[in-house]
Structures are given as C-alpha cells and as structure tokens.
TrEMBL record:
It comes from Hibiscus trionum. This is Glucuronidase 1. The keyword Signal applies. GO terms for cellular component: membrane; plant-type cell wall. Residues 1-21 form the signal peptide. Belongs to the glycosyl hydrolase 79 family. One of its GO terms (molecular function) is beta-glucuronidase activity. Keywords: Signal.
Amino acid sequence: MYFKFTFCPIILLLWASLSFAQNVNVVIHGAASIAKTDDNFVCVTLDWWPAEKCDYNQCPWGKAGILNLDLRYGALINAIKAFNPLRIKVGGCLSMERWDQLNRFFNHTGVKLTFGLNALFGRNESQTEKGLWIGDWQPQNTKDFMQYTISKGYKVDSYEFGNQLSGSGMGAKVDAKQYGKDVIVLKNLVKELYAHPETQPKVLGPGGFYEEKWFNTFLEVSGQGIVDGLTHHIYNLGPGDDPNMMNKILDPL
C-alpha cells in the first residue's frame, strides 16, 4: 500500500486565501446551552457493498464491505480501539463462519455491537400497493441466530428491527401498526432467550426515515417498555450527486 500526495495546489490555495484574508472579531454568547452531544455519539455501520459497487461515476468501496473486510488490518484495529468503545452496526445475511470471525474482531477491539435484524422475514409483498410488505413477521430465523450467538458467548448490545421500513420506506415498507405488533414479538423473544435482565440486549427501531404519523402509530401500538431506543435516519446533505453538496458542507446554515 502506498500513498501519493500533491502539495502544490494546496499551497496555492492557502496563499490565495491569505491574500484576501480580513481581520474579524467573533463574539460568542455562551449563556445558554443549545444542545448536548452524548460522549458515545459517534457510531459506525459496516456496509455490504462489494468492490464493484459504483455510484455517481465512482467505485469507492474496494474491500471495505463487511464480507471482504480485512479484520487483521492494524490501522483499522487501532482506530476502533481508540474510541473505547465504538458502537458498530452490522446486519444482513452472514455465514456463521463470518459471524464467528467478526465477533473475534469485536471482542478484540472492544466494540459495542448493534445488530440489524431482518424484519421482512415471513412477509409477502402486497399485490395492490407497491413496496408494502404485509403479514406477520416470522421470528424463527432470528431465534435460531440468537440461540447460536448466545451459545458462543457473543455479546450484542442491541438488536435493531429492520432497516428503512418506516413511513414510505426505502424500497420496502411495513405498516406502522403491523411493525408495532411485531416489535412486541421481538421484545418477548429477547426476554425469553436472554434470561437475566442485566444482560438482555436492547431493542431498537425502526431505523428509517421519520414520518410523524407513522412513528406515533408505531409507538402507540407497541406501548411502554418495548422499544429501548428510537432510531431514525437523516441525510442532511442529500444524495452524493447533489450539485450543491459542497455548499451544504461549507455553509450548512
């Protein structure tokens, strides 16, 4: 592995910036706190994309996908250890061999693990509404996975139920009432398999885009004491091919 650096354009840019620099006075009123960020705010998702996955005329993934990631790479190991701990989210279809390898890696680096479960298992796609998946969630696959995980002594901090199924979804969606009923099934399964409350993984959801009516209905149906953490996705910068991307980064307000 080698790195190639080009300094000349950076130096020219710095020189140009200094040439037009102005002295300014910045006054900060620190009388009130607007928001507080938790110490564990940073988290990482290990994604699934193969090396040949390309978007916006770029193919950036290389061997960064979870199925071909080099778990012995020293820089990666040290970076994760430095967070002490780093929360990593993993999900999807794994062979048990790869699951074993990942857990050795997580144990070595002190990762706090969130595992994303398949919330479409057992459902069927609606014939009348595009993208809607109907029917009850079937938990047997998840039960088998949890039993194996427990038998190996692997630590899972939390289970997230599905991915981007809320509201209008992303390629697939589940009705809020149905999702609420199914997450109760998941919670009961966690309680059944993890006998001691102090070692029970948390149940998270829905891990999708926020739509107020959908979220409200889901929480009303699931009720208290079921969901331990509410998760949603937000992409303030928009898609990677947005022509205004640079302006959004440099001037987010």
